[in-house]
Amino acid sequence: MKISPAKTISIVGLIVIFFILVIMYNGDEKKFGKIRESYLDWYFRANPVTATWIGIHTYDSKLPLNRKEDYLKEKSITQSFLTQLRNINPNFLNLDDQVDYDLMVHSLNETLFYLSEIKSHTWDPTGPVWTLGSGYETLMGYNFSPKDKRAKSLSGRIQETSLFLENAEKLLDEMPKPHLETAINQCEGLISVMEEDLLLFVEDLDSTLSKDLIKSGKSASNAIKKYQSFLEKKLDTGPHRNFRLGESLYNKLLPYTLNEGISAEEVLNRAHLELRSVQMEMLDLAVPLHKKLFKAKSKIESHDDQLFVIEKVLNKIADDHVERHEVVKNARETIDELNQFILEKDLLTLDPSKPLEIRETPEYQRGFSIASLQAPGPLEDNLKTYYNVSPIPEDWSEKQAESFLREYNRISVKILSIHEALPGHYVQLYYANRHPSIIRSILGSGVMIEGWAHYTEGMMIDEGFGNGDPRYSLVQMKWKLRGIANAIIDQKIHAGTMTEEEAIELMVDETFQEEAEASAKWRRAQLSFGQLSTYFVGSELMLDLKRDIEQEKGSNFNLKDFHEELLSHGSVPIRHLRRLMLD
Question: Which of 14, 82, 376, 463 is deepest in the core (most CB within 10 A)?
Answer without folding.
Answer: 376
